[in-house]
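User: I would dearly like some help making sense of a protein record. This is the protein in question:
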Amino acid sequence: MGSRPVSDDDVYLNDAVQIAAKILVVGHFAVGKTTFIGTMSEIPPLRTEERMTQAGAHVDDLMGTRGKTTTTVAMDFGRLTLSDRLVLYLFGTPGQERFVQVWEDMTRGALGALILVDPERLKESFPVIDLVEHYGLPYAISVNHFAGTPDRPDEELREALDLLPETPIVTCDARDEKSSANALITLVRYLQERTR
């Protein structure tokens, strides 16, 4: 069956049309992107994780990544319906520098990015923030609060990450649906404000 042309009736019925928004979930290696998408997706998430091997030990720095045995080698994908009209398609990018070439394709059509950061490894977030800014994507920072990590004031994080005053910062636990949803809602509200 072919597609039909858009009619005047479609224009008047557009309140029923769902809006699909592509959102990137990005961050450095082992910050919780796969976990975040798995927590939030209403469908079984697509994961491209592979077991880490000795061959990659000299490439992937496992310092501070307790129990990390797999890594994303292409992308993660999930879907989340926020309302009758808004559906988010969540695309998780690999965090290692060697996968940067996939970012260009992943950023096409994306409305914005949620950057996950580990408060104990903030310096690893700089290359990720640089890439997101290079591709011109608006973003929010979500501090993935790992067990045993101290809370840091937003002002301290903003200064350490050299963020603009309007860049949203929110804390989440990528394993927790409620706090992860709050992080996504923070990003969506920020994107809406920018379009007004």
